[in-house]
Design a protein that fits this description.
By secondary structure, the protein is mainly β. The chain has one helix and six strands.
């Protein structure tokens, strides 16, 4: 089971290593910058980076921690519009 602490640890890694959050539904969210994620006890707030500024979000998603199924290394060729798409 993935916990909020697991995600916080990944966000605090230096240097930051981009990763993917995979939901129980199969949807995934690419985390490319630690400033675009807010971790709560029951939810994870994920911002999708804007095209012109990777530290500012255009869209956002509120993910229930209960449905976070896995964290994995982000593939080198990840699509910039991969958030929520599968």
């Amino acid at each position: 089971m993935i916990t909020a602490n697991n995600i916080q640890e990944k966000l605090k890694e230096r240097p930051f290593v981009p990763f993917r959050v995979i939901m129980s539904s199969g949807q995934f969210y690419d985390i490319k910058h630690p400033d675009l994620v807010l971790v709560g006890k029951r939810h994870l707030f994920v911002g999708t980076a804007s095209e012109d500024n990777p530290t500012m979000f255009d869209r956002s998603s509120l993910l229930p921690m209960l449905h976070v199924a896995a964290l994995e290394a982000l593939p080198a060729e990840a699509s910039p519009s991969g958030n929520g798409q599968h």
